[in-house]
Amino acid sequence: MTEIKKDIAWRIYIVYFAVCLFGVAIIGKALTIQLVEGADLKKKVQSLTLVDRSIEAVRGNIYATDGSLLATSIPIYEVRFDPNADAITDDLFNEKIDSLAWSLSDLFQDRSPSSYRKELIKARKGGKRYHLIKRNIKYTTLKAMKRFPLFKRGKYKGGFITIQRNKRQLPFRILAARTIGYEREGITPVGLEGAYSEVLSGIDGQRLMQKIAGGVWMPVGDADEIEPEDGQDIYTTIDVNLQDVAESALLKQLEKHQADHGTVVLMEVKTGAIKAIANLKRNTSGVYYEGYNYAIGESTEPGSTFKLPALIAALEDGYVDMGDIIDCGDGSKQYYDVTMFDSNHDDGGWGKITVKKIFEVSSNIGMAEIITKSYGQNPQKFIDHLVKMNLRDRLDIEIVGEGKPYIKNTKDDSWSGISLPWMAHGYELQMTPLQILTFYNAVANDGEMVKPKSVEKITKGRKLVKEIKTKVLNPRICSKETIDKVKSALEGVVSDGTARNLKNADYKIAGKTGTAQIANNKGTGNAYTGSKVSHQASFVGYFPADKPEYSCIVVINAPTRNVYYGNLVAGPIFKEVADKVYANSLEMHEELGRQKFYASSAIPYSKHGHKNDVKTVFKALGISVKSNAQDQDWVVTATLDKSVKLAPRLIKENLVPNVVGMGLRDAIYLLENQGLRVRVNGRGMVKYQSVSAGQRIQKGQQIEIELS
Length: 708
Known about the structure:
Blueprint: H1 2-49, E1 50-55, E2 62-63, E3 69-81, H2 90-108, H3 113-125, E4 131-137, H4 139-145, H5 154-158, E5 160-169, H6 177-180, H7 191-195, H8 197-201, E6 205-212, E7 216-219, E8 233-236, H9 240-257, E9 261-268, E10 274-282, E11 288-289, H10 294-297, H11 307-316, E12 325-327, E13 332-335, E14 338-341, E15 352-354, H12 355-361, H13 364-375, H14 379-388, E16 406-407, H15 419-424, E17 429-430, H16 433-444, E18 449-450, E19 455-460, E20 463-467, E21 472-474, H17 480-495, E22 510-519, E23 533-543, E24 550-557, H18 566-569, H19 571-583, E25 609-610, H20 611-620, E26 624-627, E27 634-639, E28 643-648, H21 664-673, E29 677-681, E30 686-689, E31 702-707
Parallel strand pairs: 2-8, 26-28, 29-31
Antiparallel strand pairs: 1-6, 2-3, 3-4, 3-5, 6-7, 8-19, 9-10, 9-24, 10-11, 12-15, 13-14, 16-17, 18-21, 19-20, 22-23, 23-24, 25-27, 27-28, 30-31
Helix pairs in contact: 2-3, 9-19, 11-13, 12-17
């Protein structure tokens, strides 16, 4: 028995010793954590539950040249509620909960007051400190919520918490949308939003946030905030009125010809400022939208619009002059194993015509003959001249995605015997619409090539930060003599050539049509007709031709209704945009000189009317009045050599008065006072009344008067 007790006691001692040892270990570990590792562990815990989160800066605005908003950031708010804020006592909560629930229900109209009440009570009982009320609400709604019971006490006294986020909006919707662009995470920046992102973005602030139950991050006071610095604003060169005209005209022609896509660019000649740039693409449903910036990004074979740089090269190098005669034959010509055609080859071709006429009627064979005879022995000289005129260089504009121009070299593997004649009229090379326009703009600008620009200045509030000045790419692409020659030819295209349908009596247009064939496996193709070849119609030029102010290019791809020539498809868009610019630009109109008017009498003519009115007017003019209407209010006037004679016009009750020769206001006064219903046609003086004077008036009778 004694042995058993000793055995049990020994086991108890062992257990006791083990428990004591374990307790000492726990105390030791606790002391180690508290005294040695405590600071590091505290930082680690805080790093998991407390972090500095960025406060998004308000992105700068994008304006049109007149100050109209093209893109702006609209604040969107998220509202949360801290029902367990220290200042919200049970009595206060119970007193205000019903009215708060009713206010929320009345504002949002989505749930009943009792539903809101139950939710808020549950949040308070559950110890929530960051309960979500609504996301994505506008500032006007937020202002209303700030007046609600409890909420109007603010963040600390009423638990009202707001988080602001910014949403980008385009007030003009699709107007220049692709050029304005966007910047989104994971997507290559587009348009001006991408090009000027650093300027527009501003500097984000910082706020200490704590992670609470449910993985929600809650701001910890305001003391540790670093205020964000809002972004700067940019003023574009875009004119919203001209932009609207360009897009409307483009859409109308695209729909008319059921084309795949198209672009329009309008630019100031002297500054290179882009006043309008429209790009529309047809989707599978047949609806047009701004899906890609074709003006900047699409490099294609330009076709006949490239005849201008080809002609300038030949003129500058002294190979031809505008009056030289070139034989264009019967409209077809063999170059090695390929036949080239003119548009009128079915009618026998152009025969022998001048270089100027070749350009005006856009003869492919004529241009091919000029270039092959000039550079056949040294084709690299032709290429070098094109390069000298910056035609192989990118424009390096602000917006990313510019297509690379392609001017092949004689050493390229793709060079062949037909390269030179085909390059002469815009094939076997590639350029974007904006690059072509820049060259034509240089011609309009007397040879000075300027870089196109979409932004004119950067501001911070009312302070000017930077002005974007015009950059000269080439001070002179060719001689003044050559510029004058090709300007005359460009005017001839509209007056006597392929674009005669654009000619008008108000102002002169100078430009060039272009019609290029694009193989479907290389170009856009025509998905709607399934044809192997689609067409690209274009017109590029400037106006007024005698004093250029604006240049413009229109390119339409893949029209599907058997009309594909540049003058018929692209030309009308150019004309509509040019007409709008001309109508709204006073500087383009000639000032009227002093006008001379001749009249049969020195005394001005007067309509019949009220005697006192007539007398007052002629007295002010210093003209003598002779009146035979002593007791009559209404008179008939007669103009004499040196005076005006007044005779009475009798007005009798219930009889239709004679109002012929009166002004509209007096006529309506007399007729309606007699109870007649008056219907008016035209404007000016009354020349006819449907009911003869002197007839008895019937109640509610209608009389029609015509004005001249």
